[in-house]
Amino acid sequence: MDEECGAMNHSLPHILIAEREFLIALDAEYLIKAALDCRTTLLRPEQLDQWGAAALADVDLCLLDVPLDATQITARIERLVAEGVPLLFTTVGDIHRDGVKGFEAIPVVMKPHDAETLAAGVKRRLRQRPPPPEEANQN
């Protein structure tokens, strides 16, 4: 039974929540899981640098905390974009309310998170996965 659950869960969208503050990450996870059936992984933003291309290929969205000085994470953002990871930025800094310099196409959700705004942003940015073969055959 565990194998079936694992296979089922693997077909769910995988969302990385890369946040410096653990309680904020837990809040984001709670709000996202209340709105969407998904898998989540909570980590500190610098831990993303240890994720290889194969691991990132399984990520359907990364909610990434942006510090006030976004230049500190430019290389990290560029790598995630190059690997094809859909991003949604989150920040407390009004300076990034309308976008992060150089990455204006990636939306920003302000903290503290508003449940509806966060859920809508996640759903819009989430990579669409093809349905599993057994579901595709039933349609």
Automatic annotation (TrEMBL):
InterPro entries: CheY-like_superfamily (IPR011006)
Name of the protein in its database record: Response regulatory domain-containing protein
Annotated organism of origin: Shinella yambaruensis
Lineage of the organism: Bacteria, Pseudomonadati, Pseudomonadota, Alphaproteobacteria, Hyphomicrobiales
